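Mods, move this if it's the wrong board.
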Amino acid sequence: MFMGEFDHTTDPKGRLIVPSKFREGLGDTFVITKGLDGCLLAYDKQEWQIVTEGLHNLSLVDKAGRQFTRFFFAGAAEIEMDKQGRILIPTKLREFANITKDVVTLGADNKVEIWSKDRYEGLETSSEEMDDIMHRLAEMGVRI
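Not the wrong board. Structure tokens:
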């Protein structure tokens, strides 16, 4: 399980230091792809396999399924971490997530989210919105 929030910067080459807390869980080679809300998602190889198996069940007849599959897989890239714990995020993924310098990396259960700091700070959820979210989760049977 990934958890925690860390601030970092990318260097001029677009490399990002992976927080030491996430390195072992992600492994030396892992997958990064486009996420929702404008972030990037990083999955270790085992979790990537589980996620992609679930997406294989989407119907080709369903237009939304085809669109999401294209979105999710077209941007995916296998990433290797160097000995200093740095990764090079491909240019297209950096552009998608609007990552230029300041980055927030956070654990989100089975994955790591990588955000442009500006975009992440713009996501603040009001306590009223969080109450609505909690009620919806409770209706779905999620207990927190």
